[in-house]
Each structure stands twice: as structure tokens, then as C-alpha cells.
Design goal:
The chain contains 14 helices and 26 strands. By secondary structure, it is an alpha/beta fold. The strands form six sheets. Strands 9, 11, 12, 13, 14, 15, 16, 17, 19, 20 and 21 form an eleven-stranded mixed beta sheet that branches. β11, α9 and β12 form a beta-alpha-beta unit.
Amino acid sequence: MGWDVCDKWAELEPERAAIIDLTGDKRRDYSFLDLQTHANQLANHLVSKGIKPGDRVGVFRTQSIWTAAAHIAIWKMGAISIPLFTLFGKEALETRLENSGARAIITDETHAEKFSETFEQLPDMEHVIVPENDKIAEHPQAFVQAHTTPETPGLIIYTSGTTGPPKGALHAHRVLLGHLPGVELFHDLLPQKGDVFWTPADWAWIGGLMNVLMPALHHGIPVVASKLTKFTGEACQKIINDGGVRNVFFPPTALRMLKAEGKTLKGLRSVGCGGEPLGEEMLNWGKEALNLTINEFYGQTECNLVIATCNRLFEPKPGCMGKPVPGHDVAVIDDKGMPTLEEGDIAVKRGSASMMLEYWQNPKATRDKFRHDWLLTGDRGIMEGEYIRFVGRDDDVITSAGYRIGPAEIEDCLLKHEAVASVGVIGKPDPERTEIVKAYVLLREDVTGDAALCDALKKFVKANLSAHEYPREIDFVNALPMTVTGKIIRKELKARAAKELEKE
């Protein structure tokens, strides 16, 4: 991977733009030769510290030239990189670093202070490296990379941990090739002349690292590095203008924030979104506000980018995530592991290049992730011709009065109401119906929640979706629990509902 996303272009077109840095007061462009120099000198520095092939090295930085160079350096050494969110606190960091047995961590001056004290429970941790301060430039600019194969481990990405302790998905060097078809689809046949990539998503997330940064560099497309102190439409437009951005990956939450703000964005050729289905309302908004059709994609840390839409090739089907991406055998399977046309488990067959090798040091969890030769995503779906309709997380599907109800379509329906900015829907335990549909609604800034609005929202769902799917309870909230990747944490909403029951 290190050669593919860096050295290949440094040899062919050394002055070709790789990273457009907008993190400072003024724009700074780094070429592929610059990126190669950063990566090679850092790799030599790591070798001087005793880091060997197979060793694990954490990357604890925001978007920057050094973040890209760090992963490339580690891969060229034959070591294994671990992307880590800078939002992580001490406990979250310790959990991941201890589990992986990381020997070093690459960070910046701002975040190095988190490692000022000795982590007694991290016996393997030996080095905290800040490239800007560690005289990296004194090392040679040439580096002879280690021999790697498609199956050589290169990356551990930890799951969010919303359904238990975080698990490390160990990926091989083939993971990059596994991502390329999906990226090319949801960016409407990437690459096109003049393409420039950006995402507000952190490069520590698989969505930022492997859906944007590395695929773009593979194609020789520049990637904008930026730091948004606050996410607003105005700030996004400035980055698009200053960086010449044409291709963006927005998490669903970011798009909803833009919609709530009433902001339009100009100058984009393609926008991709993944993590949660958008629904018809958001797709229609995208056509008006962005002047394009937002393409969706689906995957997870363990096996990413296996379903996608591509407006250039086929029409999106609202409520459906898209079609299986070439190179990935995706199906809805039953309890016996057989493909079915009924509702079932969305699964990916062994052989996908973006499929993990295993959960790091967790053979039981690895076994439990599979049903025969199918990797279980944990999501439920229904095949509709070539399309796959998302029903919900296996543990999020609501069972009410004998009906199985997916929360996503109710959320999509409520988002169409002019008063609603965001919403999370769950099943709340009920003695008569097993569960009732409950909605936690975040209203627009100029709207006040009251009993009349509550009744109006219930009627709105009844009229636009179905009488049996309307939320019997609605709470107006000031914020919704979100993962760092912008997904609503329904597990926390369920815990809140459980506490409500105790009080009742």
C-alpha cells in the first residue's frame, strides 16, 4: 500500500499534488515527492527506534501531511498502523494501545501531553514520536521497503465499541484494492479530470482513511487537509473554494446539519455519504442544495464498501443502500446461511479484498462474526431486485404488536417535517405490544416543542408512512448521542428509555 499510494506517483510525476494543507493561515501544497520524503525519513526514524516488521504503531493525529506520511511509513516498513481519534481520552487510548501491544505512537505537539505520564498498563509502549520535534529531517530520504503480499497485515482499525468493548479489525495490504471499486462508484466514475478530495471526517475513521485519503492518493488525486473548529455551511464552502474541492465524503450527520442550516454548496462534482441510509427527503434536498445526486455506500470496519450507488450508472432507489459493488459477493441470508428474498441478515461472502483477516487476538469474536462462509454485518435487509433495502441493525429492529419495524424509515419520514432537525427512533419495552415506537427529536433552533407539535408529528408519520409505525411516544431533546463517525447511538437511547420505565 505504501508504494501504491506514494512512491508510484513520486517516480512517475514527482511534482504532482498530493496533499493540499489548509490547516494553517495559508494554503500549502505538498507534492508526491514531498510525501515520499516525509514517509521515508519517518520510516528510517522508526527503524532507528527498533521498530520491526509486524510491530504495531499508533497514529494519533488529525488531518495533515504527517498523518498520511505516518501510515505510509509504517506500511513500507512492513509494520502495522493503528489510526486513533484525537478525541479519544486516556481510557479509550489505553484500551486500544494495550490490546494491540503497540510499541510506538506518532502524534503531534498538541496531543503529546496525553502521553506525558507513564501508562503502567502499557508495557509494550516505548516511543512517543512527534515528527515536527524529533529531527526527522536528519534521516536519509531513501528507504528500501519491506516485502509485503496481499495477505500481509498492515492495518488495525478498532470498532466503535457501541456494542461492547472495541475490537481490532486486522486488515491486510489488499484492503486498499478492496475499497477502490466502491469509491470509484460513489464518486460517479472516479477519477475525472480536475478531481480534488476532501472530507470533514477524521482520517482516523475507516471512512476518512480508506474511503477518501488512500484511494485518492492511489489515483493521484490531491486530498485537502483541514481543521474545522465548527461545522457550518459557510466553513465548508470556504474549504471547497480555497482547496478547489470537487469531491466530498459527508457523514449523514454533516448533511443533516447543512440541511437544517438551509445551506447550499457550489462547485462539487460528486458527494458520497455512508453510515446510515439517507432516505428520499435527503436525496431530494441534495439535488436542490448541492446540484447533484448524493451517492450512498455501505460497509463496516470489518468489511467496507461492499454496497454503493452510482448516479452515472443507475438511478438510486430511496430506502435502498444500492447494489453490491463489483468484487464483493453480498446477499441477504437466512438463519441457515442461504440467500433469501425474505428479510434476513446482510452478509458478505469470504473473498472480498476489503474483508478483515480477523479480530486482533480475539478468535472467538472472529468465529462469531461468520455464518459458514458469510461474514455477518449485524444489519437486517431485504433484496429488491439488484438493490438491497436496509431494515436496521439486528438489535435495533423494533418488534411491535407482531410487526417488525425498521427505525430508519421512521427517522427519514420525521426528517421531512419542517420542524425536525434530527431524530433517533428506538423500540421501548411495552407489556402489551412487546415494544412501542419511541422518537427522540431534535428540533430546529426556531421551533418550540409542545403537545401540539407532538401530536402533529404523530399524525405526520401516520399519513406519510403507516398507521402501525407512528411513534406512540415523542421526547424533544437538546442533543442526540452520536458516535465520533456521526451515527446515532441507539443503544444509549434505549438505555434512556429503560430508565424512563423504571421511573414509571
